[in-house]
Amino acid sequence: KADTAMYYIKDRGKDNLIVYDHSMEEDTLKRVILDDNIRKALANEEFILQYQPIINVKSGETVGFEALVRWHHEQQGIISPAEFIPLAEETGLIIPLGEWVLKTACLQLKEWHEKEDSRIRMSVNVSVRQLQQRQTFIQTVKDVIEETGIDPQCLDLEVTETVLMESEQDIMDTLQALRELGVSISIDDFGTGYSSMKHLKTCAINTIKIDRSFVSDVTHSNQSRAIVKSLMLLAQQLKINTVSEGVENEEQLNRLLSENCQETQGFYFSPPVSAEEAKRFIK
Ligand code: C2E
Ligand code: MG
Ligand code: MG
Ligand code: MG
After folding, report:
1. Comparing C-alpha atoms, which of 26, 27, 21 is closest to residue 4?
2. How far apart are the first and last CA of the chain?
3. Whose CA is closest to 57, among 219, 278, 283, 266?
4. Collapsed DSSP state (helix, strand, coil) of residue 253
5. How far is the CA of 188 from the centre of ligand 4 (A)?
6. Rounded distance, CA 224 to CA 217, Å?
7. Which residues pair with 156 in a beta bridge?
8. CA–CA separation, 67 and 263 (whole Å)
9. The complex's ipTM?
10. Please, what is the angle between helix 81-91 and helix 26-43, to 10°?
């Protein structure tokens, strides 16, 4: 029919026929195709990790890295996680993708521990969907620690504040169970959610990562400066570590230094880089 289009999609080796008529949102079709592509990309090992150094501002040393996923697409080149993580979260593909990220990052960490520096740390982003699969996720983390042989003290799991707002008690229990495996928990993009303080009180959080939006105008907004200052004091009182995200220039760094910032991450030091380039920072 004139208003009907058909698409063949290969799924796990099987051909599937999708009949698209115009009652279906164009958006829906795009999502079906993108979802299928993510599935294939996982099978074809098209995902890669880059690592962004996390710097101790006082010593200037690299203390760890944040693993950030990218999709190395045959035709489109490098695709940013902002383009596919939300969909992968919706469709559930984040579960296998997240597992791949965790395992790959831990294997890389193990290699660095053996060849470069045994104290270096690794931060891995974890999505709410992964945490919701409570027992499965805890088991996955356990398995990865065992299989790779890393010291769990060097592994840090980053969860965003919005994650903590979802199914509160369950998520808290999951984070607690993860802590018992020896890993650390960071709250990512801190300050952008709604119930930050409550979670600092009830949950065993090791680190808050102060969102880039505060850091980026810390030099010219009194409001942002006040917020950063207060967050640093709060963290100090609670004996929580801080990482300032998105430091892009020296003025921002100096301002953060004067507010007693401990660790930082940003383009001023380095963008996310390949594992090979990352070695330079460890050395
Ligand atoms: P995030 O976890 O907050 O990661 C920090 C993001 O800020 C990264 O973007 C990084 O490249 C960027 N960034 C770092 N320093 C600067 C700076 O100085 N200036 C600016 N403008 N940006 C800076 P990226 O790699 O595009 O990742 C975006 C988001 O995608 C991440 O935010 C995280 O929420 C998500 N993501 C990335 N990898 C994964 C993953 O493996 N799993 C999950 N669940 N989410 C991931
Ligand atoms: Mg992060
Ligand atoms: Mg962040
Ligand atoms: Mg962010």
Report:
1. 21
2. 64
3. 266
4. helix
5. 7
6. 6
7. 123, 184
8. 16
9. 0.98
10. 100
**For residue 223, what are the contacts with CB-CB under 8 A and spacing of at least 6?**
none
CA dihedral 148, 152, 155, 160 (to 10 degrees): 120
CA 79 to chain centre: 16
Ligand 2 centroid distance, CA of 73 (Å): 22
Name the 3-class secondary structure at 53: strand
Whole-number Å distance between alpha carbons of 206 and 11? 41
What would the two tokens of residue 16 be? Answer: 């599937």
Beta bridge partners of residue 159, listed in sequence order: 187
Minimal-distance CA residue to ligand 1 atom 9: 68
Ligand 1 in reach of 68 Cβ (< 6 A): yes
| pLDDT string in tens for the chain (283-residue length) | 445 555 555 554 555 555 555 555 667 767 777 778 888 999 999 999 999 999 999 999 999 999 999 999 888 889 999 999 998 998 899 999 999 999 999 999 999 999 999 999 999 999 989 998 989 999 999 999 999 999 999 999 999 877 776 667 788 889 999 999 999 999 999 888 766 677 777 667 899 999 999 999 999 999 999 999 999 999 999 899 999 999 999 999 999 999 999 999 999 999 999 999 999 999 8
Q: What is the largest CA-CA distance in the chain?
A: 68
Q: Taking CA 199 as the corner, what is the angle to CA 196 and CA 201, rounded to the nearest 5 degrees? A: 115
Gap from CA of 16 to ligand 2 centroid (Å): 36
Helix (H) or strand (E) holding 74: none
Residue with tokens 């979260």: 89
Q: What angle do CA 275, 279, 281 make, to 5 degrees?
A: 120
- Identify which of 68, 129, 214 to mutate to test ligand 1's pocket (most ligand atoms within 8 A of the CB): 68
